[in-house]
Amino acid sequence: MDSTIYKSVSTRRSLKYNYFFSAPAAGKPVLLFVHGFPSTSYDWRYQVTFFKEKGYGLIVPDMLGYGGTDKPTDAVDYKSGLIAQDLVDILDAEKINKAIAVGHDWGSVVVSRLANYFPDRFIAFAFLAVGYSPPSTMKFAESYAKATEIAGRELFGYWHFFAEDGAPELIEKDIDSFYSLVLPDDPKVWISDLTPRGACKAWIEGNKKTKLASYLPENEIERQKTEILKGGLTGPVNYYRTKVFDLDLEDVQAIPQENIVIHKPVFLATALQDYVALAPMQKAATVQSAKGPLTIKDFDTSHWIMWQEKEKLNQGLLLWIQGLVL
Q: Tens digits of per-residue pLDDT, 215-225?
């Protein structure tokens, strides 16, 4: 991704966002790509190349806490509704009336809030690996227990570690160990060493390592690590802290009831080897709330669909976008 065509904007809450921008060709919509954890706009490099060549407009921000975007240290600043407003501020700065939002991981949570708070600003919504996340007033302890019961095992044990004081520094100190757990060649490592409570911390404290994902070149993984270390992990883990500490419960109560479901077209790409965002659970939540046209595609990949099956994902998204009424 060409660093010379990045731009920056100050949002209404005076936070600077850094983002890749490419104007659309005549008749083409703008795609807003929203990355997750632990990432930057560089996550979308394969999608940017593919869709830019086809004339689609692109807005690809470094999300709050990452890359060239501001990195406030207070977890309150990372509430998903506030970040959704930040992204609409970017659309406003570029004079984009409507866009198609595509999210992955925590980006899917933010895209969910775009659908809740700003449905009229979007043509459609796409969710990768993590499906639509309906607003909930359930406290984290309750949702943790419910997810554990449904899955038959813990899914979010590592969230507790990320919410601890000192977690960012520990991750930064043993970044190679951390990345081998984030990007393992065998995705089942997540079952034993990520999702049980205490396992992720024990992995990093023990400086454990496993083979890195073979579908990514080593230089690309090293670039990701370098970019994350530049800004540190305090901002990124704040996405988890907003949930663990129930910081956004009051905000989601303000979402209009009619906006809790999505009436616009939805695309869901599930990752069948994702052992956190389990495909059946992601489908169930999305099917229940997507009241407009719904397209679901299964990918036999780990969590990182946009890298592991980039060609199939790009083609799937393209076919879906081409079928939308713009």
A: 999 999 999 99
